[in-house]
Amino acid sequence: MSIHYMNNHNHPFRSDCLLKLCLTTALMLFYCTSVVAQLHIIPQPVSVVEHKGQFVLKNSAVIAVTSENEIVANYFQHYLLTTYGLKLRVKLYKDVPANAAIRIYATNDSVKSAYNLQVSPKAIIVKGNGAGAFYGIQSLIQLINGNHGEKLVIPLCDIKDYPRFGWRGLSLDVSRHFFTVDEVKKYIDIMAHYKLDVLHWHLTDDEGWRIQIKQYPLLTEVGSKMAYYSKIGKFRKLDNLIDEGRDGFYTQDDIRSVVKYAQDRFIDILPEIEMPGHSAAAAFAYPELRCKDSTGLRPTTSMLDPSEYTFTFYEHVLGEVMQLFPNKYIHIGGDEAEMTDWLKSPTAIALMKREHFTDLRQIQSYFIKRIERYLLANKKKLIGWDEILKGGLAPSATVMSWEGEEGGIIAAKMHHDVVMTPLPQMYFDAPQAKDENEPIGWNDPVTWQMVYNYEPQSIRLSPQEATYILGAQANIWTEKIGTYKHLEYMIYPRLLAEAELTWSPVADKDINRFEQAMYAHYRLFKLWGVNARIPDVYGLEGVLTNKSIYTQTLTYPLPGAAIRYNLNRKLPDTNATASAFPVAIKTPVVDSLIIKAYVTYPGQQRIIQSAALKHIDIAPPLSVNTATLNSGLNCLIYKTTLSNLPALDTGRNFINTVLTENGHIKPFVGLYNTWVKFNGYLKIDTEGDYKITSGFEISPIMFLGKVIILSNQNKYVEPQAVILHLQKGLYPLLGYYLADDTNSRQSLINLTTADGKSLNAAGFLFH
């Protein structure tokens, strides 16, 4: 566990004497946010060199292209016309001439999807191998500055770029709530702008069957109308939905249209046909699929019977699906199968006897392997959720790891391909904050920072095992998402963080640089009509302090935003006076104080934020001979199944070590908890005001005589800060945390002075 200093994305606290300076600094930071961040391209390219000057896009300019990239040229021409009203001409050549304003060259680059983009005063040159040329155009699109009907300018630059991972995915669940063909295409458009290349289309589930299968017409005639049948009492009430659902399905012509649309944007569509669970819609349409009990009188509605009828049925279904989707993969689900239903099935019981199975998970494995053999015979590969590991993994299956990373790590160690899509980091149906008006979701909030900080290649994998990680994917389930605008609100801006973590070199990741670039993209969201969630306020965070006066300057990264706030625990009403940013707050803190605020931004929904301020008393420093102290913190590392902190102090299975500035503590391998107890001193050399935070994504519990950092708080969802006036001397420090892969790469304790200077841990942590 490193104890080092990182620049926190929150602004440093301010004291009275620094208020004017901080107002100026806030304005400077805002200005820098507007003009820096390496041209604001997301995902961050491998290499970017900016030059002085600009290229001006003019009407009737020629896009010169060879046949290999004609689709790319036509796409760019259409984009400029519909977005800006600019009319360019596409000309096809055997060899691209050197005098054309925009030149797109085909290459045979050995790195798939690589591109070069050069913008000079006289020409734009894009070089790439199909997908690479398209991605070069996407970077170019992000560089265009202007509005419809205005002169369009592009900064001069040289870019060389290629993706880190080949699987850069996003799911779309149309089973719970149906989305139209036009809505799906708009979804694909924004994916394309950020260089994602896999759309995982969740077409079937309990709540609806959305794909036309000609051999089984009832799948859509009945199975696509589950909301209707639940409404009239012929199907179970859809309790998971926020409303009564939205019925509908895609004809095979619709599917072909969407597939072609995605292909033109170099996106593969991965169809998912759920089995053996999550199959109520299919079983409702064709009751013969249902898993029955021994009397045959009480059919269940979600589990498929492992009968020959079922296997034949699904082979016919998949036969039609494979004709519609050129993707080499077919997703068969395999998750959350209610296997106990098979205990009542004569078919399943007979299967267990015949195959000498002793565990229901072996039926699950048998089912998946049967389907895999059929897919392989048709030159397709099976992919499923990590539950397909249960009972034995199908020989060539690819695992999509959603129940955390463990399934993916196991599969990679077995030399199976893996797509990392773990809960919580990659689940976009979770709310983005704990604010009062955030849409409800299934899980605790997931912020864009949590997404950005995720690393698909676990440190528990060897370099060779890590090569089986194909990439990562963000998932979104739509039980609670009833409209397309709501869907956009949940996706953006988190999608940009996922795009960068799957494309950009891991060594180049920089959350501060990305943050600035992301805020610059709200201009594009407005241009494209995307309903993205707006950012949180800087400086509005939970604070413990021993000071009697609290001062803070609230700033905002987007121009034109306004804030309404109260210091009396009540949310301001819509008639309250709005204040422009920055906003200086100076208020006494006797016991506790709650700030409530809402922020508005033109053309977007408002957000609500709150922060609790609490006064604490801190005992004076100790008189200890510092000459006898050593750098770092004393640590006890417990390998245990215990989760109760007080019980740790009675444990005997521990390792005693010292946590130094450059040290780190990795979790134990296996099904253990790795608890760390740390203690020592916080050494203050100069009396003054200090801010203490933890860099851990999930906070430790930390004591400075009293609790100053609460445990299990997500630092991005529930930010915590301690602002203390400390005298010169030593303050006893004690704490606990649960070590994991993530916090093995994060700073335990951050200490910042009143003027925003981050101190080096080696100078203030001792034992």
TrEMBL record:
GO biological process: carbohydrate metabolic process; glycosaminoglycan metabolic process
Domain of life from the UniProt record: Bacteria
Residue ranges occupied by any Glycoside hydrolase family 20 catalytic domain in the UniProt entry: 165-505
Entry GO terms, CC: membrane
Keyword Hydrolase: yes
Beta-hexosaminidase bacterial type N-terminal domain mapped to chain residues: 40-162
Keywords: Glycosidase, Hydrolase
Transferase keyword on record: no
Any one GO molecular function term: beta-N-acetylhexosaminidase activity
Pfam hit, one: Glyco_hydro_20
Catalytic activity reported: Hydrolysis of terminal non-reducing N-acetyl-D-hexosamine residues in N-acetyl-beta-D-hexosaminides
EC number(s) on file: 3.2.1.52
Catalytic residues (positions): E336 (proton donor)
SUPFAM superfamilies assigned: (Trans)glycosidases, beta-N-acetylhexosaminidase-like domain
Family: Belongs to the glycosyl hydrolase 20 family.
Protein name, per record: beta-N-acetylhexosaminidase
Organism listed in the record: Mucilaginibacter corticis
Record lineage: Bacteria, Pseudomonadati, Bacteroidota, Sphingobacteriia, Sphingobacteriales
